[in-house]
Amino acid sequence: FPVEDIRNFSIIAHVDHGKSTLADRLLELTGTIEKTTNNKQVLDKLQVERERGITVKAQTASLFYSFGGKQYLLNLIDTPGHVDFSYEVSRSLSACQGVLLVVDANEGIQAQTVANFFLAFEAQLSVIPVINKIDLKNADPERVEKQIEKVFDIPSEECIKISAKLGTNVESVLHAVIERIPPPKVHRNNPLKALVFDSTFDQYRGVIANVALFDGMVSKGDKIVSAHTLKTYEVNEVGILVPNEQSTHKLYAGQVGYLIAGMKTVTEAQIGDTLYLHKHPVEPLPGFKSAKPMVFAGMYPIDQSEYNNLKSAIEKLTLNDSSVTVHRDSSLALGAGWRLGFLGLLHMEVFNQRLEQEYNASVILTTPTVPYKAVLASAKLIKVVKYLIPLCMSTNRELHKGVKVAEKLYFLKKMCNLLGSIMAIISSSFLLASFDYEDAGYQTAELVKMDILLNGNIVEELTTVVHKDKAYSVGKTICERLKDSLPRQLFEIAIQASIGSKVIARETVKAYRKNVLAKCYGGDITRKMKLLKRQAEGKKKLRKIGNIEVPKDAFIKVLKTQ
Ligand code: GTP
After folding, report:
1. What pLDDT digit, counting tens, does each position of 61-111 carry?
2. Which residues form a coiled coil (predicted)?
3. ipTM here
4. Whose CB among 93, 240, 246, 557 lies 3.0–4.6 Å from 62's, allowing a Cys bridge?
């Protein structure tokens, strides 16, 4: 394909505005997939995406399309809409020259529409606004057109109005891609320069790297070098994604495709890496800014014998999602594990679900926290803490002050002491609001160290640092959960939550006399021995706090999310 006949573009939008549905129609119109009524979000391949109805992973597809007597190669990258996955969007944009900015004809511009527009704008990409869902009863495409003109300074005539669901006017989107997005600026005669913009791990074939070729070409059998590790590999397979892998033996500058080169371990395939020919070293591409985790949680195998399996599952999944940070950690109660950093709560849930579904792992995920720094002064904790937005949303009463950008639409970007810079789009009815946020850095806050005691003895595993205002409710919940999960013993157990010497919550487990032999009326001695042995084994899994035996299960119930 001559470079001038190639277009590389992404579909970006706020969550649920119809990116994946539009991608389905584009795949059908170009004959990439068969036109049936069953095509629903075909590029959302992961089980978690299908179950939740959201895209969490950008997907690439090469489409062939004839227009004006010419064949074009259109490389489409479908991206996620939720704020937690915007890292996926910014990476995808590095392989593109233009975007389709999809906006719901009823909801209009939302926070992620604005955030994603600016990602594309900063990358100097051509933006084609597409107003979707014009078939909806409450659709008001003219109002949305005006919003687009006002907020993004794009003339309303440039908006394409479609229904991705019904297929109305979708063909003109393809025409606009060809007419308004420039072909990639590349040099085919220069030596190979390929950007790894995504990668996945295949159990049998190893690492599959998604690449965008900026210069030169790559063929099966070529010796290539990773600029990151300086390791040399032989290319086993190259090809395009239609949307499944199709080997083509060669890829040329301007194309987007995949490459398999015997990379076996996760550390060998860094996203953002530059690949070049062994005989022609080149200056590496700038790569990507690394993602900054906002939410941290402990992850432990349910059974320690599963540690190594879980370790390898986490390594493989982080290759597919490099925005997750992993550090080894251990807990007295839960054993060896990791502290993982995520971009948000949804991101954390999706990662956990993918581990379970794609790697058959069962894990304990502890209650998530945001990063904090604590400075210890005398007996009291002086704290510096960073909050995430949902924790403070309810206390922020100033959000209604904003700039009116269109009828019933307000655009806010303000600094507030706890939240940092917030961008919010709020409709005047307040029925609809969406938020995006930037990092606010660390702010001083009133935190306290809270201990949990069993009959006066501190359970170190359960000591936490909490906000002063939340201490009571958190303490109460932990005491209640412990009460529910501690087996009754021969004596009464007092469960207390305390800050220093002050008790803030208390529950009691009543005494209970347990005799494993009670049900064996005389007789069978071997059965008695078996029961005693089983009780002894059960006890091994207990931890003693003072004279109280706490089963591991109780810790799991208390430390687990929910
Ligand atoms: P994320 O990937 O999660 O950000 O969502 P998305 O932007 O890819 O949206 P998706 O294509 O999954 O569509 C969201 C919902 O809107 C689905 O229920 C679609 O069936 C529906 N939808 C998409 N396009 C149209 C349309 O043109 N008209 C109507 N009525 N519904 C649509």
Report:
1. 888 999 989 999 999 887 766 666 666 667 778 888 999 999 999 989 887
2. none
3. 0.97
4. 240
3-state SS of 202-233 is: ECCCEEEEEEEEEECEEECCCEEEECCCCCEE
93 backbone dihedrals φ, ψ, rounded to 5°: -65, -25
- 4: pLDDT confidence band, cut at 50, 70 and 90? very high
Tokens (6 digits) for 11: 């579909």
> By the 8 A CB rule, do 268 and 231 touch?
yes
User: Counting beta carbons within 10 angstroms of the beta carbon of residue 157, is it exposed (0 to 12), middle (13 to 18) or buried (19 or more)?
Assistant: exposed
Please tell me the distance from the alpha carbon of residue 312 to that of residue 317, in angstroms, as a whole number: 9
Q: Terminal CA-to-CA distance of the chain, rounded, Å? A: 54
Given a contact cutoff of 8 angstroms between Cβ atoms, the answer to whether 246 and 240 are in contact is yes
| Helix 171-180 vs helix 19-29: crossing angle, to nearest 10 | 90
- Is the minimum distance from the CB of 13 to ligand 1 under 6 angstroms? yes
Task: Give the model's confidence band at 399: pLDDT under 50 very low, under 70 low, under 90 confident, else very high.
Answer: very low
307-320 vs 345-359: helix crossing angle, rounded to 10: 120
- Residue 519 pLDDT exceeds 60: no
CA of residue 20 to ligand 1 center, whole Å: 7
Measured from the CB, is residue 80 less than 6 Å from ligand 1?
Answer: yes
pLDDT band at 426 (very low <50, low <70, confident <90, very high): very low
Instruction: Quickly list DSSP for 100-143.
Output: EEEEETTT-S-HHHHHHHHHHHHTT-EEEEEEE-TTSTT--HHH
484 is in an annotated binding site: no
State pLDDT tens for residues 540-555. Answer: 455 667 777 777 667 7
CA 165 to centroid of ligand 1, rounded, Å: 8
Give the CA distances from residue 270 to residues 77, 173, 228, 273, 310, in Å, rounded to whole numbers and listed in that order: 20, 34, 7, 6, 21
pTM above 0.80, yes or no: no
The answer on whether 540 is annotated among ligand-binding residues is: no
Residue 293 C-alpha to ligand 1 middle, in angstroms?
Answer: 28
Q: Is the dihedral of CA 259, 265, 268, 270 positive or negative?
A: positive
303 is in an annotated binding site: no
Residue 258: closest CA among 172, 198, 184: 198
State in Å: Cα 139 to ligand 1 middle: 14
Percent of the chain, pLDDT > 90? 30
Q: Calculate the alpha carbon distances from 473 to 337, 478, 480 in Å.
A: 28, 9, 11
Of 241, 314, 295, nearest to 58 by C-alpha is 241
Place of tokens 């795949």: 27
| Cα dihedral across residues 479, 481, 486, 487: positive or negative | positive
CA–CA separation, 225 and 221 (whole Å): 13
Residue 135 annotated as lining a ligand binding site: yes
DSSP β-bridge partners for residue 422? 414, 437
Separation of CA 319 from chain center: 13
Q: What is the C-alpha to C-alpha distance for residues 371 and 368, in angstroms, rounded to an integer?
A: 10
